Amino acid sequence: MTKHVQDDNEIKTNNIIIDEVSSSPKENQSLSNPISFLREMKDNFSTAAKEGFGTKAKNVATSMSVGDIVVPLCANLTQRQLLANRGIYAGVEYEVCSLSSSLTNEERNITSFDNKEEITQPQVNHPKEEDLTAMIKPAYKLRDHLERNDWPVSVRPKDEVPLWLSKTTYEAGTMLGTLSLSLTYLITAAALSFLFTFAYVPSESMIPSLKPGNVVLVSRSIFLQPQVGDVILFDPPPNLKKIITEQEKKNNINQETSATTMTKSDKQQFLKRIVAIPGENVGVKNSQPYVDLNSNTNNNERKILSSNDETKEENNNSGSLRRPRRYRVDIVGPYVRQDIFSSDSWNRAPQKLGRNEYFVAGDNGFRSVDSRVWGNVDRKYIFGKAKLIVWPLEDFGPIQDGNISEIEKE
């Protein structure tokens, strides 16, 4: 009785050792010598480059020789199934055992590699392309208990398989395709990470538009300028950083915490809604932001938004008729007390925003530390615009509009 003992790298049958992993001394040398392996790979690419890649690759159906390692390729599913029934699979390496003409039955360089014995018959002219028949078998070592026992099998390379590639061309093309696909994935991932990010909402400063626990998709603003009503993700400007530091030192109860981006970066970022854009006149009355939309503003006029939202005008030419004045207001809700922050956060005369300055506020003004307190946001601090709530699923959808509206006052 024969006893089989299987080890990690070999199968022992009595005193006969059969390598389980098929490899030649050349292959082992290539693996153990990286420089030799790279040189061999370079040679393979050079050879493959001459034969072409993809659909332009050289078809060796009519030029294969006995002993060559070839790879059949076929895209037609029906044809592939017919070939598979005979043991011929696309993308698998096969060894050419013999070549003959089906009409003349003449063979050229017929060499049998079975049982590792070489029998070469006299060389004759290559058969006609249309009549060429090849006997092939898998190039890897066969396992009797796994493989069929009728190898080699016959195939007409010209008629039955649309494309035959040499081993070198196939391996180089596969490697090139894998590298190209990997680079495509890496470039796509890098582009997406540059253009988009996810931000986690930890506070109540944007209620009801955004709730604590929401995750939003943010797209980077590169070519498009932020507009009024946009919810933006931005890095804290210096004034906001100063407030954060002071609150941490005093261990005060924070009105809000920063948004957390789904990246490895530990930097703080915030989500707010834009109330005013560069060039607009924005002020604060009773802790409510408002924007003076009147373009013809005289220097000798001072507009005040009273507590009952009525506009009063003090003008040297009193008594003259005036057109209704237009304002943009953001009903965010006041802070709980006037003494929480400086007086400017409660009442502030309109000031024109600079070229790259934006005034932002939270939808829930009671819980939002925003431009009312620390001033305007420069364009360079803005990452992008939050457009979509992606988590949780019950909140999935576009971010709803805020409480910004326009009014007219006599």
Q: How many beta-strand elements?
A: 24
Anisotropy-based shape: rod-shaped
Largest sheet: 9 strands, antiparallel
Radius of gyration: 39 Å
Low-confidence stretches: 1-31, 104-126, 296-319
- Which range does the strand content fall in? 25-35%
Helix content: 10-25%
Please report the distance between the alpha carbons of the first and last residues: 110 Å
Return the structural class.
alpha+beta
Tally the helices: 7
- CATH topology of the largest domain: the name is Umud Fragment, subunit A
CATH class of the largest domain: Mainly Beta
Structural domain count: 2
From the 3D coordinates, which CATH architecture of the largest domain would you assign? Ribbon
Look at the structure and give the mean pLDDT.
Answer: 76
State the CATH superfamily name of the largest domain.
Umud Fragment, subunit A
Protein name: Mitochondrial inner membrane protease subunit
GO molecular function: serine-type endopeptidase activity; signal peptidase activity
Domain Peptidase S26: 183-391
InterPro entries: LexA/Signal_pep-like_sf (IPR036286), Pept_S26A_signal_pept_1 (IPR000223), Pept_S26A_signal_pept_1_CS (IPR019758), Pept_S26A_signal_pept_1_Lys-AS (IPR019757), Peptidase_S26 (IPR019533)
Describe the overall structure.
- This protein has 410 residues and is α+β, with helices and mostly antiparallel strands.
- It has 2 domains: 37-173, no CATH class; 201-313 and 322-409, Ribbon (Umud Fragment, subunit A), CATH 2.10.109.
- Helix content is 20%, strand content 28%.
- Helix 1 crosses helix 2 (34-51) and helix 2 crosses helix 5.
- It starts with a strand and ends with a strand.
- The model is unreliable at 1-31, 104-126 and 296-319 (pLDDT under 50).
